[in-house]
Design goal:
13 helices; rod-shaped; 5 strands; single chain; Heat Shock Protein 90; alpha+beta
């Protein structure tokens, strides 16, 4: 694994689970807002004070002479590497540990009196446990326990207790490292979940924009196609038969109003997420009205409904309506048909929708009349999203064009 990146240890290796929640939060804020260098300086000063106190108290003890000047000069240097403990934990433990061992031979009490060097060493050991793993961790732990028996040359029980304390220091450091890694893992997973949620939201928004674009295409294409046909018919008879011209212009006005109503409904959906509930999408029940608008374009169109209807999901019902609308629009624009049929066949297994005409049929390129084929692509995407199938091509007898849609039940 190698050495971890230097950073801040969570909760300074300690657990605050027994403290009140507000106290924990206050301590966490204070800990996270304090610069790491300040914390390390405070730790170093505490280690300095502990070592100097032990050196002063042990000087001249047990009938020995006061400590020589070089002892007084060496002791304050021992804790100084703790300032760099985060950047080089293994080196800091090596320097401080070897310094204590070296000084213990000529001046043992100066570094062992009342455990005055233990704070410094335990901090260095815990730091190695936190930042290092692999061979650095195990070499540090084994060497520290071994040198414990060199520095403390008295009671076996005392050696064992010291070894246990050393092992605990390394264990606490490793526990802090595990908590750090777990926190990072949880943060990474939370970030990944957030990114996934954002991606799904973006995908849903894109799908919604596509759906709205299809609906607006269906509305405009159908209504504008009818208006063009009626305008051409009205212009051709305006002088010979004013009544037919007036009826054609009335049909244009009705088609325009219908298109405006549907566009307002669609734009309301864009402005307000609840507009769908206030302005419901078209349903199969509105197909007779759609048939009447097509008949006004001088196409003899029949609506045939077979079987007993059963409830459809809302999105499927809208898809069926828009499919019929798009197919009839293509009939008006491209088929040059005189007769057509919209047939809905309800069975226990599926709903089959067939839109057929007696027009010019598909061109060699595959689409009816002179259209671009985008309408059929939109139909296929709508019905496929509802679990259905779409086929388009020549009519049953090879004449005209038909669109066949099958939506399974349930």
């Amino acid at each position: 694994m190698g050495e971890a990146e230097p950073g801040r240890e969570p909760e300074a290796y300690s657990s605050m689970s027994s403290l009140p929640v507000r106290t924990q939060q206050a301590m966490e804020r204070a800990w996270t807002r304090t610069p790491p260098l300040v914390i390390d300086l405070v730790i170093t000063l505490i280690a300095e004070a502990s070592l100097l106190w032990g050196t002063v108290a042990s000087s001249g003890q047990d009938g020995t002479a006061p400590w020589a000047w070089w002892v007084w000069a060496s002791v304050p240097l021992l804790p100084l590497p703790l300032i760099w403990r985060r950047r080089a934990p293994f080196a800091v433990l090596l320097i401080t540990g070897l310094g204590v061992v070296a000084l213990s031979f000529p001046a043992n009490l100066a570094v062992t009196y009342n455990h005055n060097s233990e704070f410094m060493l335990l901090v260095a050991m815990a730091t190695v446990g936190y930042y290092c793993d692999g061979w650095k961790f195990w070499v540090s732990a084994a060497t520290s326990v071994g040198f414990n028996f060199v520095v403390i040359d008295q009671y076996t029980a005392k050696n064992a207790i010291a070894a246990l304390i050393i092992a605990m220091a390394f264990a606490v450091g490793r526990l802090g490292a595990k908590q750090r890694d777990l926190a990072r893992l949880m943060a990474d997973r939370a970030h990944e979940a957030e990114m996934t949620s954002e991606a799904r939201a973006a995908q849903a928004a894109a799908e919604e924009r596509t759906r709205i674009a299809r609906d607006m295409h269906d509305i405009l294409a159908h209504s504008v196609s009818l208006m063009i046909v009626q305008a051409e018919a009205g212009a051709s008879v305006v002088h010979q038969n004013p009544q037919k011209a007036e009826a054609a212009f009335d049909a244009i006005a009705d088609g325009g109003r219908d298109a405006l109503t549907q566009l307002r409904r669609m734009l309301g959906l864009l402005r307000d997420g609840d507009a769908l509930a206030l302005n419901p999408q078209p349903t199969i029940g509105e197909l007779p009205r759609l048939i009447e608008t097509v008949r006004s374009a001088k196409i003899d169109l029949r609506l045939v409904m077979l079987g007993e209807p059963w409830p459809l999901p809302k999105d499927t019902e809208v898809a069926v309506y828009r499919t019929a609308q798009e197919a009839l629009t293509n009939m008006i624009k491209h088929a040059r048909a005189e007769r057509g049929e919209l047939r809905l066949d309800w069975t226990a297994q599926a709903l089959t929708v067939r839109v057929s005409d007696d027009g010019v049929g598909p061109r060699p390129g595959g689409s009816a009349g002179t259209g671009s084929g985008r309408g059929l692509i939109g139909i296929r995407e709508r019905i496929t999203a509802c679990g259905g199938t779409v086929s388009a091509g020549p009519g049953p007898d090879g004449r005209g064009f038909q669109v066949l849609v099958r939506v399974p039940a349930g």
